[in-house]
Amino acid sequence: MSVREFVVLGTASQVPTRHRNHNGYLLRWDGEGILFDPGEGTQRQMLRAGVAAHDINRICVTHFHGDHSLGLAGVIQRINLDRVPHPVTAHYPASGQKFFDRLRYATAYRETVQLAEEPVAEDGILARGDAYTLDAVRLSHPVESFGYRVTEPDGRRIRPELLARHGIKGPDVGRIQREGSLGGVTLDEVSEARAGQRFAFVMDTRLCEGVEVLAAGCDMLVIESTFLDEDVQLATDHGHLTAGQAARVARDGGVRHLVLTHFSQRYGDPSEFERQARAAGFEGELTIAADLVRVPVPKRTG
């Protein structure tokens, strides 16, 4: 059975707090796992969340600030220690190659796993498979930063009333799905188009075109909201978003489930992020991320 869920490992901005670890997030997408932005302490948080090294197929780093990447050394060594039986691919900004190299070989260890390095230099598709397409879009931050999007291929939804109209039932339902036609009846005549699910991961950035591109049509948008709206100038100066800005992007992009994360330690009450997001007009499902929570990706519509 396919599982699509977002596992939050850490939610702090810049420095960890008593209640929030550095960043770290795992997207389970059917039989694969994508680890985003493993900050310091991610290996420990994985243990607490029930995430194993074997669950990781890809690592996606948005940028090379420490709260988003210092955990790479431990995660990569754990992947090798546990002898993960499948190849693992790492995506990260190409301009940060020297940082990736330092983290990958921070200490001595025995390499037992094939770790493919696929740095990102420009917007575009990074991987394409049966379950999803992964692409990257440039963001706006003091250091080069990319957001990532996971898109399921579009499919078709069978309409029972159309099957009945053409007298198709039992094993023939599966046959027309596999072969595309049956007795002169095409699959298009008994089904309708169904858009694939879309997930986007947007970390450190100020408002820019890339944020809007990534958010458009998402079933789930995970996005930083480092600051509250009253500190919008700080957000802009340091290359970040406020809760209201993130929520307006989600509202305008038709996002179904918004996950806010990456909170500055200056704020003690997370409910204020929710209040400002709602005040900005976002009416969909909303999660204010907390460490170690699991958020199901919304089911496909229809």
Walkthrough of the structure:
By secondary structure, this protein is of the alpha/beta class. The protein contains 10 helices and 18 strands. It has helices at 42-49, 66-69, 72-81, 97-104, 160-165, 171-179, 209-215, 232-238, 243-253, 271-279; strands at residues 4-10, 24-29, 32-36, 58-60, 88-91, 115-117, 124-128, 133-138, 146-151, 155-158, 181-182, 185-186, 191-194, 198-202, 220-224, 257-261, 285-288, 294-296. The strands form 4 sheets. It has a 7-stranded mixed sheet. A hairpin with a 2-residue loop joins strand 2 and strand 3 (32-36). The longest helix has 11 residues, at 243-253. It is globular and about 65 Å long. The mean pLDDT is 95.
Helical residue percent?
A: 25-40%
Biggest sheet strand line-up: 6-5-4-3-2-1-18
How can the largest sheet be summarized?
7 strands, mixed
Oligomer: single chain
- Principal-axes geometry comes out as globular
Give the mean pLDDT. Answer: 95
Unreliable runs, pLDDT <50, ≥5 residues? none
Structural class: alpha/beta
Strand share of the residues? 25-35%
Helical segment tally?
10
> How far from one another are the termini?
19 Å
What is the number of beta strands? 18
Taken in chain order, the helices and strands follow as EEEHEHHEHEEEEEHHEEEEHEHHEHEE
Instruction: Please state the CA-atom Rg, rounded to the nearest Å.
Output: 21 Å
